Amino acid sequence: MPYLAIEDLCVSYGGTRVLDHVSIGVERGEMVALLGSSGCGKTTLLRSIAGFVLPQEGTIRVDGRDITHLPPEKRETAMMFQSYALWPHMSVAGNIGYGLRMRGWKAAAIARRVDEMLTLLQLEGFAARPVTQLSGGQRQRVALGRALAIDPHLLLLDEPMSNLDYKVRIELRHELRALQKRIGITAVYVTHDREEALTLADRIAVMDAGRIAQLGAPEDVFHRPHSAFVAGFMGADNALDLMRGSGADLAPAVAGTPQAARLRAHFRSNEAHLAHEVNDVAHDALVLPGTVVQSFYVGHGYRYRVSTGTADVWVEAPEHLAEGTATKVVVPRAALLLFPSDDSRTRIS
Amino acid sequence: MIAAARTGRWRAYALIAPALIVIAAFFVFPLALSAILAFRATGGGFTFDHFIKAWDLYRTDLIFTVGIVALSTLVIGVVAIAIAGYLTLGEQPRAVAILRWLYRWPLFIPFIVTGQVMRTFLAKNGMLNHALIGVGVIEPLQAQSLLDWRGIVIAFVWKQVPFVTLLVAGAMASLETQHIEAARNLGARRLRVLWDIVLPQVRGTLLVGLVLSFVTMLSVLSVPMMINPNSPTMITVDIAYRISTLSDYHVANALCLMSLVVAAGAAWLYLRHAAAAQASGG
Question: Does domain A4-232 have CATH number 3.40.50.300?
């Protein structure tokens, strides 16, 4: 049995089902990211594990112990909140040592543990500082220290980096990953940021409408999405309806193409390119003639919205083209992620 | 440019003038007059005699007043924290809703009506004793009147708890929910959350509510008059007696100034806290 085992969890708010028979296991020492857009149920799942939401059905077990109906204070989980939720009337040491006070530790032992945490998080000398005088990155570290100080069974992180500047976020992301590996804590990390999930997690659970759409290693979820939804969420956000032409060739679906013959294709904008001639294009590549309708400079090149008649697609290219230029979008066969058009849940190899 | 600035300044003065006139005419002037009368000798000149007389005659009542009001303030604080705490941390939605609906009722009942209600409720043959005898808590012979200092405290607490609760519950509701969740997540039970996390963050509001209640109760005449008019009683009863029966405005004004000093003590406590909070950026 996994260290954290969630089985058939159902949560509803009023008449709205937010978690729909969710089952997931997290191994000891593993970090799993719950990835999804707003309202998909990822934070509700995390709050259910923490005990702030009581499920109507299902069980949550940590190390074999059923915690489904325990109050939050008896679960031995530590949660790091999106807003950090540091108590403004306490110092850094007061915040970090609070969980230990609740466990009846002596003042000297608390002080030692707080010092350990401050060293671990590179916050030496900050013990007496009011938390209101800290920067965003420092607050984030204090919140992490407060969660880790009690040596929890499970670390729960609710979008803890969403309030930070990009640069600080990248820096702390790597620090957090290194720290989690070093202390070997089991963690569940909620995020809507694909890159964050890919960088931090051992496995990613992509959530959609209260269900887990796919659970797997970052490489698997990224390269081998099981559904059009996961493909779109993992960056393959160009979507087209295709049909099989002669042999294995693919072509844009035309009006009147029967549903059974249609395929839903997804591809990433950086895996396609623009071409003016199609002579040197691989024979199985998909070629979409179109017109540039929008262009943006994105630093390493340009990002274009190309109208192909059947759909608008996004393509990245190093060269600059004026809006209105006629061009061809070339999508290598390997870049196409294909799904049945009537059922976007199963991928076609 | 300078002329325009001057015109603007006069316009600003003109705007606040009505408020200033009202304060000067109805607050500063009577207060100054009261203070002057308290220090004016019967034959003219300056004297402390009225204060000495007031102290000699009403020292016990003054101490009784401060004691009653301080005790009431303390009980109001405890009850208001308990109610507001349950409204914030309670986990039974129905109980929270009922309490939220009920606790505000006394806000709309004047002190004089509260006094009358308490007379019928707390008397020896009042509703409270009937109820206690009815449920077997006391024997009929054990029934006693609470129409003394206890009655005043009960009336004050009953009347002022909703006001302080309203302020404190509002402040608690504005706290970030995650502050409470973070504490519970780290092992704190709800009572500890209330004490360690919630209360320290609303203590400024609590103090405002308690100081305002303290000053309000200090000036209430109807409740001590109806519940416990005999000595020792509250100083407001003595002031009313000096004026209505003896027409002795000098001693009455001296007693008023003594009350003002007590009220100013409470205000000083509040100001000191506000200054400390401002200094720490809280």
Answer: yes
Per-residue pLDDT tens digits for A118-166: 998 889 999 999 999 999 889 999 999 999 999 999 999 999 888 888 8
pLDDT tens, B43-63? Answer: 888 999 999 999 999 999 999
Number of helices (H) and strands (E) in chain B: give both, helices first: 13, 0
pLDDT in tens, B249-268: 999 999 999 999 999 998 89
* ipTM of the complex model: 0.83
CB A160 within 8 A of CB A82: yes
Q: Mutual orientation of helices A107-120 and A92-102 as an angle, nearest 10°?
A: 130
Sheet arrangement for strand A326-331: A273-275, A326-331, A286-297, A302-307, A312-317
A329 beta partners: A274, A288
CATH number at residue B73: 1.10.3720.10
Residue A25 tokens read as 């296991």
B187/A99 CB distance under 8 A: yes
Query: A239-340 maps to which CATH number?
Result: 2.40.50.140
- For chain B, what is the domain count? 2
Strands A65-66 and A57-62: antiparallel
Residue type, A176: L
CA distance B103 to A74: 32
The closest of A284, A275, A318, A274 to A299, measured between CA atoms, is: A318
Tokens found for residue A263: 């395929």
Same domain, B86 and B213: yes
Angle at which helix B29-39 crosses helix B249-279, to 10 degrees, equals: 120
CA distance B122 to B154: 9
Q: Find chain A residues with C-beta within 8 A of B179's C-beta.
A: 85, 87
A50·B280 Cβ contact <8 A: no
Asked if A73 and A10 touch (Cβ cutoff 8 Å), the reply is: no
Could you identify the residue written with the tokens 């890159």? A195
To the nearest whole Å, the CA of B7 is away from the closest chain A CA by 43
Token pair for A244: 């099989």
- Kindly state the helix (H) or strand (E) to which residue A156 belongs, with its residue range: strand A154-158
Q: Verify whether the Cβ–Cβ distance B176 to A83 is below 8 Å.
A: yes
Average of pLDDT values for A45-64? 96
Question: What's the CA gap between B257 and B36, in Å, rounded?
Answer: 10
Alpha-carbon span B253 to B20, nearest angstrom: 24
| β partners of residue A267 | A238
Checking if the pLDDT of B2 tops 80, the result is: no
Q: Are residues B6 and B101 in the same domain?
A: no
User: In which band, very low, low, confident or very high, does the pLDDT at A302 lie, cut at 50, 70 and 90?
Assistant: very high
Instruction: Tell me how far apart the alpha carbons of residues A152 and A155 are, in angstroms, rounded to a whole number.
Output: 6
Distance CA A37, CA A140 (A): 23
Say whether A239-340 and A4-232 share the same fold.
no
How would residue A248 be classed by pLDDT, with cut points 50, 70 and 90?
low
Mean pLDDT in residue range A78-107: 96
Would an 8 Å CB–CB cutoff place A83 in contact with chain B?
Answer: yes
What local confidence, expressed as pLDDT, does residue A280 receive? 67
Q: With an 8 Å Cβ cutoff, are A79 and B182 in contact?
A: yes
d(CA A293, CA A300): 20
Cα–Cα distance, A62 to B282 (Å, whole number): 40
B101 plus B222 within the same structural domain: yes
Q: Which two tokens stand for residue A109?
A: 């032992």
